[in-house]
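Standup notes
- DV: blocked on the single-chain target, sequence here:
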Amino acid sequence: MLLSIGGWRLLDALDIQPEVCHLNEGHAAFAILERARTFMNETGQPFEVALAVTRSGNLFTTHTAVAAGFDRFAPALIEQYLGRYAQDKLGITVHDLLALGRQNPNDSSESFNMAYLAIRGSGAVNGVSRLHGQVSRHIFTPLFPHWPEDEVPVGHVTNGVHMPSWDSAPADDLWTGACGKDRWLGTTENLGQDIRRVCDTTLWQFRTAASKSLVEYARQRLSQQLIVSNDTPDAINGAKHLFSPNALTLGFARRFATYKRPNLLLHDRDRLLRILTNPQRPVQLIIAGKAHPADQGGQALIQEWVRFIRQPEIRPHAIFLSDYDMLLTEHLVQGVDVWINTPRRPWEACGTSGMKVLVNGGINLSELDGWWAEAYNPEVGWALGDGQEHGEDPAWDAVEANALYDLLEQEVIPEFYTRNDSGIPTAWVKRMRESMAQLAPRFSATHSVREYTEQHYLPAATAYRDRAANNGEVGRQIVDWQHTLQDNWASLRFGEIKVVSDAQGHTFTVEVFFGSLDPKSVRVELYANGVNGGNRSRQEMKRGQPLTTGNGYIFNTQVSATRPATEYTVRILPYCDGVAIPLEDTRILWQR
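- DV (later): unblocked, structure below
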């Protein structure tokens, strides 16, 4: 309530009147109610009309990859804190308010889901990666009964990171020399070709310096950590000489939670020990992270790592840095050679930590989840997994742990230590260059914000202005249209359906009876599901001659013969110009 209702009132007090309100996760969803209330006060329109107008200017971005992750509140709590607000300010009943946050409006025991409110009060919804958009469509399918899952109205805009916040000073110099100082302030289309012009020698010198800087920082931070914990003088002194700037450095830092599988590397500890202590090709590992104070499972995972690292044979090759914060993250992403991420697919909605190494020449080795599922190709890094979901299967965790060891032993480590006559690992530098060229521009905040602006902000602003004009006249028309559908949808029915097939294709003809509905208030379509990952087929049918009874018409269309006629079916959808279907009206009638 403070964030959303209070936040919207703060904007109003500052005389800031945004056309677009971007709801980042469901925590701020009550802003939908307050924005509608503000429009009610300005125009005298009822809540239903105000919501129809203002929702067109709201965008909801969901970050949650599992349904259990959404904010839910007991109905009694909603009534206690928002009951009078609903009745006195919005002019609606508590039941109507609760219905906005429920799958079943009439289930008095169902909790109030903030994500449901956000969906019902927004003109567009998106996930934060391509895969997360797909996951979110599955999660929200119950809100769109009888609609195919791939038509659930959730798109995606993949997150990006603000590169100037995460690049080191030497990285800034490198990019400035190749692409100019203002490279992140405009379009990013040419950055890849510019950074590809940087020679192997310059790139490797840059990475060597970054490794040295990270090792110096890690030594200093670890020694301070040991001083605070009253460790022995020998341990403190030893920390000041730990690691080598010439060794391959793996980084792993994040919130410790079981779904992130931060201990996948510990599956075969003897094998990990052999990897870290190989005298010809040494590997060093920096781990950092925190667990939520209430997450005992996450805290146990940290303790496992600490116990492993305390072994005398491990101590020279791996460290755990406590008090994980942005400063520590900044140094890690600027200096590690390989960033490792091992979440359990598909529970990583996006996972931006690996994006932060891109601008600094780090390379990702990650599960095909979140952003990496769309970013990965063999030129830019390494991937774990088969691109499928396996749940919490210990056997599959073991398979992926062994695959991780294999990647390190057979590809990552040999590539890092295979040098030319000048001491440069040319294959590694090539991969590093392609990661910088292909991925840094694509997963920058510049690119992400541009996508939001072009795909959502500008269309939302236009839609809101159109609906808000003339005291919300368009919103009133939309509400009247919805009421008419509500009262007369049951009178819609199909009549006879005919199919004629020849070499040119299939010609479908269907009788549709509208009862009391205006035929212009719906759309008749011929539909076929996507096959083997292909796109679904949607084709509007043309209204032809009227039937003699029942306010009916004949509709027809033709499709190619590349698919059997039996794969197609006819359906009827609501239609109103400028209204997002099924986001704003979930009705649909299928041919039986």
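- Follow-up: The radius of gyration is 29 Å.
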